[in-house]
Amino acid sequence: MVEADSLVKRFGEVIAVDNLSFHIEKNEVLGFLGPNGAGKTTTMRMLTGYFTPTSGEVHVNGVDMVENPREAKRFIGYLPEHPPLYPDMTVKEYLRFVAELHGVKKIRERLDYVQKVCSLSPVWNRLISQISKGFCQRVGLAKAIVHNPSVIVLDEPTIGLDPEQIIETRNLIKSLGEEHSVILSTHILSEANMTCDRVMIINRGKLVGEGTPERLSEELQSKRNIALIVGREIDKSLFSGIPVEIQKQEKLDDKFRLELSFPAEDDLCPELARRITEAGISLYQMQEKKPTLEEIFLSLVKEVL
Ligand SMILES: Nc1ncnc2c1ncn2[C@@H]1O[C@H](COP(=O)(O)OP(=O)(O)OP(=O)(O)O)[C@@H](O)[C@H]1O
Ligand SMILES: [Mg+2]
């Protein structure tokens, strides 16, 4: 379990992380989502003891990361943004070396496990200097989990992987999340959607949204969007006196497709249907358009800019 309380990191004038507090439980996958420069890597470096916070505290399984870094770091497996690997070792030698450093007991078993789950068989006995970028990323992931840490921190874990490996890695993260606490960063929204139980949207070092991907979609939207198919073109005067905006109107063969929006707190659907049919216009379809996480993310990030 990780608890971060009022974390701040300054680099001179730049406030990279601006008062972030959060916690993560066992059996949970938490995603940090944010654009480039949002502060994701800096936050992870503070969680893993690589950076000392300017202020604020991090506790890992109750141990203070600033006061007892050696003890706190034992609980953590970390895949950094640029995994430092030893180019002159083979993959197997390197992972064995890391496992020994961590005092892993059943080294053979753990090596077999990471070889399998990180799909490392094709390069197992190759020199790290000679393997491709995607395989280096997988070695970095294997290094992060080889000692079976309770907290796994992954900075952009799928970057540089091929599509098949991206799917496998996401599945691996999900299964790791069944027994561990996993924190990952990504700027890929669909990735957060697919792998995370909870998402924190970060922009300019600040938390701008938080929740399950579904909850973010539902609660953070201030407008409802409705798509309609109707028999003829609609003039905006039809909606006079109600806060409805026509976002789009296009001709589809002999019909028209409209996108309307109105404030989320008013349910104007019955009123819309009534006005349209009373004007003698056929209403063929009326459907709510849920915003994607991407649209919410962009609107949240824009508000802060
Ligand atoms: N060592 C450092 N010295 C000075 N400024 C830094 C340092 N590390 C990060 N920063 C600044 O802190 C801010 C946050 O950077 P960070 O790397 O944490 O962002 P990020 O969310 O990980 O971005 P990306 O998606 O590009 O990886 C940026 O403005 C960056 O320039
Ligand atoms: Mg980063």
Structural features, described:
The structure is a single chain. The protein has 305 residues and is an alpha/beta fold. It folds into two domains: 2-218, Rossmann fold; 222-292, Alpha-Beta Plaits (2-Layer Sandwich). It has ten helices and 14 strands. Strands 6-7-8-3-9-10 form a six-stranded mixed sheet, with helices on both faces. Strands 2-1-4-5 form a four-stranded antiparallel sheet. Strand 7 (151-155), helix 6 and strand 8 (181-186) form a beta-alpha-beta unit. The chain is elongated and about 80 Å long. The model has no long low-confidence stretch (mean pLDDT 90). Bound molecules: adenosine-5'-triphosphate (ATP) and magnesium ion. Magnesium ion binds at residues 40-41, 81, 155. Adenosine-5'-triphosphate is lined by residues 11, 14, 16, 34, 36-42, 187.
Outline the secondary-structure elements.
Elements: E1 2-11, E2 14-24, E3 28-33, H1 40-47, E4 55-60, E5 63-64, H2 69-73, E6 76-79, H3 91-101, H4 107-117, H5 133-145, E7 151-155, H6 163-176, E8 181-186, H7 189-195, E9 198-203, E10 206-211, H8 213-219, E11 223-230, E12 245-252, E13 255-263, H9 269-278, E14 283-288, H10 293-304
Parallel strand pairs: 3-8, 3-9, 6-7, 7-8
Antiparallel strand pairs: 1-2, 1-4, 4-5, 9-10, 11-13, 11-14, 12-13
The site of adenosine-5'-triphosphate (ATP) has 12 residues, from strand 2 and helix 1.
